[in-house]
Design brief:
By secondary structure, this protein is α/β, with parallel strands linked by helices. The protein has 13 helices and 14 strands. The strands form four sheets. It has a seven-stranded mixed beta sheet with strand order 2-10-9-8-5-3-4, with helices on both faces. Strands 11-14-13 form a three-stranded antiparallel beta sheet, with helices on one face. Helix 10 packs parallel to helix 12 and helix 12 runs antiparallel to helix 13. It starts with 5 loop residues before the first strand and ends with a helix. 4'-deoxy-4'-aminopyridoxal-5'-phosphate binds next to helix 3.
């Protein structure tokens, strides 16, 4: 049996050995011309992955929460009105962060497993002027996906800056920053970008950068201040050394490698591969006659699947049984239903083979835990989905 278990959680994910080798290389100086080239090229490649023509990319040491914090610290001034579409655990976190900087946050809370209705968002925007409209693309805690282009349209119509937490989406879910006119998109290295945890990344539209520059109060967070980081990003793109805080040098080497691998696959292919992985996994769940947390298929993300336990099965029995077969999956996270479901991540390097191994492991574990499934039913449903897609793409 292999000692390495496959990480099928919604981040961190399995990393490509080439990326791990790049992270593991001897550390260079941050002023080394080769590193400045890797950093500069990574910033440029970020635009290609976010499908942004003119965004300002940032790569800063920190986890995804730092990216959330940085965007809030730089775009919110005390008293600014913020409309937050709350889809769960990570929206709760964002509300807390926005308030920390004096944001007057109005929350529209979606039912668990759904998104806030577009009419409700429009009503709120019509009633009051908001500086920011903030939402999560994929709510990792429930596997719910927001309709980014429709929400950004509304933000545009009512002149609010759109801020998208794309931590569980960017690099996997269809995301078109320029075409959709998204103002700010943020993510972290450990998910679909395929680099071990430790990099916070975000992209800011020229309009949002202008709004930032017109601030009337100082940024209340020293480490996150864009006035400190912006020159560093601009210098690196111009292939010149510059320093504010020491970059996470080895992780940037990993990012440089991973972004090349991502772009080699090509974004459109990557979007459709993730859609296929998701359809296949969800077909297995349906074959097992289990429910998902997203209440309708259109609310379901392609990077993660959240599945309700059948009666009598719980995290404490299912997860270790799956792990015995070499696969690591996650329990629930949404505070109100934490113990009612498990989550499987399928993004980044996940191959169809990894997905089938996961389906097999979950199917066996369900059986061991006393839930009767017919042998191979999940695998057959996933395989059928693959064949249907192949047939469709060649006809
Ligand atoms: N937002 C979303 C949607 C996430 O999935 C996560 C991490 N799971 C975060 C925010 C927080 O990121 P981090 O744990 O890297 O700080």
């Amino acid at each position: 049996m292999k000692s390495h278990k496959i990480l099928m959680i919604p981040g961190p994910i399995e990393f490509d050995p080439e990326v791990l080798a790049a992270v593991g290389r001897p550390t260079t100086s941050h002023n080394d011309p080769s590193f400045i080239e890797a950093f500069g090229a990574s910033l440029e490649m970020m635009r290609d992955v976010f499908l942004s023509v003119d965004g300002q990319p940032f790569i800063v040491p920190g986890s995804g929460t730092l990216a959330m914090d940085a965007v809030a610290a730089n775009l919110v001034e005390p008293g600014d009105a913020v409309l937050m579409l709350n889809t769960g655990y990570f929206s709760d976190r964002y509300t807390e962060i926005l308030k920390r900087y004096g944001g007057q946050v109005t929350e529209l809370v979606a039912p668990i497993g759904a998104t806030v209705a577009l009419e409700d968002v429009e009503n709120a925007l019509r009633q009051k002027s908001y500086k920011l409209l903030v939402f999560t693309h994929v709510e990792t805690s429930t596997g719910v996906i927001n309709d980014v282009p429709s929400l950004v349209n509304l933000a545009q119509k009512y002149q609010a800056i759109s801020v998208v937490d794309g931590i569980c989406s960017i690099g996997a879910e269809e995301f078109r920053m320029s075409e959709w006119k998204v103002d700010v998109a943020l993510t972290a290295s450990q998910k679909a970008l395929g680099v071990p945890p430790g990099l916070a990344l975000w992209m800011v539209s020229p309009h949002a950068l202008e709004v930032f520059k017109r601030r009337s109060t100082p940024v209340m967070n020293y480490y996150c201040d864009w006035n400190k980081w912006l020159p560093v990003m601009q210098s690196h793109e111009a292939r010149k050394p510059d320093y504010f805080g020491t970059p996470a040098i080895n992780l940037v080497w990993g990012l440089y490698t991973s972004l090349q691998l991502i772009l080699k696959e090509e974004m459109e292919q990557r979007f459709s591969r993730h859609q296929l992985l998701s359809r296949a996994f969800k077909a297995a769940v349906t074959a097992w006659e289990l429910d998902q947390i997203p209440l309708k298929p259109e609310y379901a993300a392609h990077t993660v699947t959240a599945v309700r336990y059948p009666k009598g099965v719980e995290a404490a029995s299912l997860l270790p049984e799956v792990a015995k077969q070499g696969i690591i999956i996650s329990g629930g996270l949404h505070p109100k239903i934490k113990n009612e479901y498990f989550r499987v991540g399928h993004m980044g390097t996940t191959s169809f083979g990894d997905l089938m191994a996961t389906i097999s492991a979950v199917e066996n574990a369900l059986q061991v835990c006393g839930y009767a499934v017919s042998p191979g039913s999940g695998l057959a449903a996933a395989q059928a989905e693959l064949w249907r897609t192949k047939a469709g793409s060649t006809s």
